[in-house]
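mind reviewing this fold:
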Amino acid sequence: MSLSGFGGVEQQFATFVRRAAARPDLHQAVVVCSLSIHPLHRDTLARVNDWHYEKRCCGLKLPQHPRAARRARYRWLGRRLRPDVALLWNRLGEQWRVLDALGDRRCLYWEHGSAWLAGDETAKQTVLDRLPAVICNSQAARRMLELRWQYRGIVRVCPNGMRSTRFAEGPRRRPADAPLRLGVASRLVPIKATCLAVHALAALVDRGIDVRLEIAGDGPLRDDVIALARELGVAHRLDMPGVVADMSDFYARIDVLVHPALREPFGVVAAEAAAAGCPVVCTAVDGLPEVVVHGRTGFCVPPTGDLARYRALGGDTRGLPPVVYDPVTDRIVTPRICEPAALADAVMRVIADPERYARMSAAAIAHVRTAFDFDGHVDDVLAAAREYAATGTLAPAA
């Protein structure tokens, strides 16, 4: 696992490790794939039985060539750690090295979004062809493996757990005439399409709504977002605190989370907002409709605009995945965007009726509490790992 950053995937991994460490019958070792470790992950690594760098030895970076050096490192790690099963977290195209070192029988791949990405197609296909079973974090991830990669092995879905333990005590109530507070929680990168939320903010202002938008997160497109807000005349309604240390407080002070991402294998931020009783307006893409129950805990907006339209709205298309999963048609399609007017329409539907807002808030809390319990998530993954260690595969879903 790469631990140089502190984004949603890394925090999900860290929470899993910490929760699993409390199990008395489990021995955990972590192989860190990055060359550095974010300071906030040091506590996580202190809780495992053993950990090592993948690409460092004796404090030195191992060169890519000759390849024998890294192959020897993998073999040494295998002898040192002797895992009953190695959970291969994402990085699909790079996992052949682990398979070669440990053998297919001891390797269980755990898909968290790598199957969407471009590059290493031959290596990815080779890894999948060697594995009789895998686990993944959403039904969307399962279908991406099956539709894009024609994977025919067993796929067991272990939905992500909700990291936060701070659930709202009860449903929120919002007076219809109160100022509206929108929120975005994401890295400021092209795939998250934050510019669409800024356009939706402008559309709501044009409709006479007293509204502000707070963006929790940072990234290379920060200056672009600020420039767009100025161009649209809504910069004075935009708050950009950067990375927010206490996300529970962030969700508590917004009325609606807007998440217009172009790709989202699961959507942890949508689950976090729901736990705080905050309805979500998001793109109907990939795994988001598994987290946001359309019409009950928020609204999933169909993406209808192409990438040319995205660029016209100020979007950056560099580094986007070639395909995403359309859960409505059950097909692999090219990425598309939500129209800002459609996002604004969905926000209006959430806030127009105070009673509907309260019902959505209550349903969001209940849905996340029951569907995405983190201890249950750990139980599911460990059960799959033990079954794989014992049998070399997983039983098909009932």
Q: What stands out?
A: The chain has a mean pLDDT of 94.
